[in-house]
């Protein structure tokens, strides 16, 4: 959660510069960059779910329950296909990204609820507090990233494209860590096994 939420915010704030840095070469035009940027932002909105899924699946495997994740995955494939066919017409490629993001969030939520109900009760309150801290700190980080991006004018060349991604990310990451520290007890410390 602490790593995935700020990544999602960074992808939402910097999709254009990221797409330009990675793809605007050769025959990849500015229009292509804009379309890729929209997809990056939508895919990025579910980074936290993509990160949580392997952890949850491993939890089921540790409890010798391989069928529940499989059943949920099959159901989510059906959901994803239905959303693909529904969203591709009005939203084009962004519809495919949205269906994947929504399906990942649904799968993560279903697995978390089922794991908590059938195996080990998850500490929902602690998870909610951590999520809230991550969201607040990431929101501040997003504002800092956006402000840093505004200070770097867009020019031709790879160096400028790299600066328009790297500087906001570094400044934003520093702001994120600082805000987490200001809010008190650090979950980073907990992850290292210290009280």
The tally of beta strands, per DSSP, is: 0
Oligomer: single chain
The DSSP helix count reads 9
Mean pLDDT: 92
Rounded to the nearest angstrom, the radius of gyration is 19 Å
Q: Could you give the order of the helices and strands? A: HHHHHHHHH
Low-pLDDT residue intervals, each spanning 5 or more residues: none
Domains (count): 2
Share in β-strands:
under 5%
Shape: flat
Distance between the termini: 19 Å
| SSE-based structural type | mainly alpha
- Estimated helix fraction: over 70%
Biggest beta sheet attributes? none
Explain how this protein is built:
- This protein is an all-alpha fold and 195 residues long.
- It has 2 domains: 1-45 and 123-195, no CATH class; 47-122, no CATH class.
- The protein contains 9 helices and no strands.
- Helix 4 (47-62) packs parallel to helix 6 (93-118) and helix 7 packs across helix 8 (158-182).
- It is flat and about 55 Å long.
- The model has no long low-confidence stretch (mean pLDDT 92).
Q: Summed up, what is this model?
A:
With 195 residues, this protein is mainly α. The protein contains 9 helices and no strands.
Question: What would the keywords be for this entry?
Answer:
single chain, 195 residues, mainly alpha, 2 domains
């Amino acid at each position: 959660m602490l790593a995935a939420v700020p990544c999602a915010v960074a992808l939402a704030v910097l999709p254009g510069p990221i797409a330009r840095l990675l793809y605007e070469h050769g025959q990849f035009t500015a229009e292509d960059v804009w379309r890729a940027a929209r997809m990056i932002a939508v895919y990025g909105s579910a980074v936290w779910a993509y990160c949580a899924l392997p952890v949850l699946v491993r939890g089921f495997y540790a409890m010798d329950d391989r069928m529940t994740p499989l059943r949920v995955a099959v159901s989510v494939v059906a959901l994803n296909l239905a959303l693909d066919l529904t969203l591709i017409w009005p939203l084009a490629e962004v519809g495919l990204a949205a269906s994947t993001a929504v399906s990942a969030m649904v799968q993560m939520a279903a697995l978390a609820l089922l794991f908590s109900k059938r195996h080990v009760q998850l500490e929902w309150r602690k998870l909610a507090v951590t999520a809230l801290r991550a969201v607040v700190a990431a929101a501040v980080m997003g504002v800092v990233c956006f402000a840093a991006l505004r200070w770097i004018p867009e020019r031709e060349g790879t160096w400028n494209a790299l600066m328009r991604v790297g500087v906001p990310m570094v400044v934003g990451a520093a702001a994120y860590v600082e805000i987490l520290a200001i809010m008190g007890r650090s979950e980073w410390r907990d992850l290292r096994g210290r009280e």
